[in-house]
Specification:
Rossmann fold; five-stranded parallel beta sheet; 7 helices
Length: 196
């Protein structure tokens, strides 16, 4: 299997690093490094950037300097892995603000000349979303139809050309015992080795 260029985006808004999302990212990184994949990381909680407050700012404003390495990493990567906890049924606001900033016109997509945004700027990349949650993952997937994850896949990643996108949904995280935690860490190591 050829080595891939992989960018890990840690979307947990607590920079403390003691959460399951951080352990999962570390396990993925271990597996990826062992298989010879090239790896970069972005820790969204450690970045200092403003919220976007207008369409004009998003379309014509400058990317905050703190986000240039993250945008460069996205451009470099062949595969993105985004880790985040489900908060109030969606990704944390800080991760959403990060995505709004880095997925700007001219980088993530280009005007097609007909007044639309027809040229996807990030094609040729795949992604995996690793989402932790308090509810059972099956309830989220089938009862709630994984609405926020599907929205991220379709309205952000798909909009800019990133496909395919795979999901790893981890439910009942507050009830995971040591064996359950180990099982998920082993799964993420295996995904890292596979570059998936």
């Amino acid at each position: 299997m050829p080595a891939k260029r992989i960018l890990l985006i840690q979307g947990h808004p607590d920079a403390g690093g003691a959460h399951l999302c951080h352990a999962l990212a570390d396990a993925y990184a271990e597996g990826a490094a062992a298989a010879g994949h090239e790896l970069r990381r972005v820790e969204v909680a450690k970045l200092d950037f403003p919220l976007l407050r207008s369409a004009a700012e998003w379309e014509k404003g400058a990317l905050p300097p703190a986000l240039q390495p993250a945008q460069d990493g996205i451009g470099w990567a062949q595969h993105l892995v985004v880790f985040f906890p489900l908060w109030l049924g969606d990704m944390p606001a800080l991760l959403k603000a990060f995505l709004e900033q880095v997925a700007r016109p001219g980088f993530a997509f280009h005007d097609d000349g007909n007044g639309g945004f027809g040229k996807k700027g990030l094609g040729g990349r795949s992604a995996r979303l690793v989402v932790t949650m308090g509810m059972p993952a099956l309830v989220y997937r089938f009862y709630f139809r994984a609405h926020s994850v599907k929205s991220l896949e379709r309205n952000v990643l798909g909009f800019v050309g990133i496909a395919p996108v795979h999901e790893t949904l981890i439910g009942l995280v507050d009830r995971l015992d040591e064996a359950g935690r180990r099982k998920w860490l082993d799964r993420l190591r295996a995904l890292g080795r596979a570059g998936d």
